[in-house]
Amino acid sequence: MEKQMESSRLSGAPKSAAKGKTWLLDFLLVVLLYAAVAIPIANKTINRYYSGILIMICINIILTVSLNLVSGFLGQLVLGHAGFMSVGAYTAALFAMNSGLPEGAAFPLGLVAGGLMAALFGFLIGVPALRLHGDYLAIITLGFGEIIRVLILAMPFTGGARGLTVKTRISRQPSVFFTWSFFLAALAVFVVYSYIHSRHGRAVIAIREDEIAAEASGINTTYYKLMTFVLSAFMAGVAGGLYASHVGALTPVKFDFNYSTELLVMVVLGGMASVTGSIISASVLTVLPELLRDFSAYRMLVYSIILIIVMLFRPSGLMGEREFSMKRFIGFLRARKNGRGRRPNGSKGDA
Predict the structure, then answer these.
(1) Distance CA 215, CA 131 (A)
(2) Which among 97, 79, 276 has a CA at the least distance from the CA of 169?
(3) pLDDT per position as a tens digit, 130-177
């Protein structure tokens, strides 16, 4: 028995070392990507317009990855994600404006408050809603998003239809605000990826594949569905807090059904149950409307045609269920290099 335990321990050591190497390579890639963008922003090589687009990419990555957690990995169709974002946005804005704290403390605490408030709404909506499936769940979450929008219009402290003006100094410092946005997006990706590859994530995927079989095997389906839904709502609330500081003016019109649909399109286009796909689609679909501004009269038409073409030729999304790994990418490059270096059998060198 002792020999068997020792052999299993020794066989597990290379796996953990390889996993640690993979995480290290991915971390270095994130740091290099941040440096490649943050330094030009700090030097003002990238102007405020383009830095604003990069910040919106980070915000949309948080929203898309968090929605993919519910709609892709859990398999529940949610059409009210913009509602959670609006709760976080207004909570963070009101907290920063009325807390009386220095901005260096009010801004991060406002993001946490926005995330917690959105998570609370996620819990209150999730308890009854997650007992339903498919179209019924989609209709309930759609109704929730519209209820939140109407309440924001009716409440005097939210500014109503006039909106709410958010004044923060940090949003006027593009390099600092990009740093916050980038690393919160990286943290969201890390949390979702770690969650899905944990014991809890395996239970979530089992529920997506067959909820009845998962429940019969002893998985508490209600618990895991609610926990995933609340985690997704929390991240949407944090993204809403970032958005509030970024745009400087909040209006309920932004958080309507169309925005929830746009986020769902990003998830489907990138690939359901693919974190990498969510990152790619959020980046592309944030930049694409800006690139088409010269064709303002036909911008949405071209945008729609591109989406239709992609879905026709890649119905499972750009990435399907695959993920990018720096270690696998380096291994692929080495394999190609070695393949080119080998000569065919029987070939001889130049005479």
Answers:
(1) 13
(2) 97
(3) 777 767 888 888 888 888 888 888 888 888 878 888 877 777 788 889
Q: What is the pLDDT of residue 292?
A: 77
The structure tokens listed for 39 are 């330094």
Task: Spell out, as residue ranges, where the chain has pLDDT lower than 70.
Answer: 1-21, 134, 296-297, 299-300, 324-334, 339-351
Strand partners, 250: 164
Q: Residue 326: what pLDDT? A: 61
Contacts of 242 (CB under 8 A, 6+ apart): 55, 58, 59, 62, 111, 180, 181, 184
What is the CB neighbour count within 10 angstroms for residue 261?
A: 14
Please state, in angstroms and rounded to a whole number, the distance separating the CA atoms of residues 100 and 212: 51
Whole-Å CA distances, 262 to 39, 161, 267, 285, 304: 31, 22, 9, 9, 11
Dist. CA 63–CA 73, nearest whole Å: 15
| CA–CA separation, 351 and 349 (whole Å) | 6
Residues in CB range of 255: below 8 A, 6 or more apart: 82, 83, 85, 86, 89, 145, 148, 149, 152
Residue 134 token pair: 């498919």
CA–CA dist 321, 240 (Å, integer): 27
What is residue 306's predicted lDDT score, i.e. its pLDDT?
A: 74
CATH number among 1.10.3470, 3.40.50, 1.10.287, 3.30.420, domain 29-327: 1.10.3470
Q: Where are the domains of the chain?
A: 29-327
164: β partners? 250
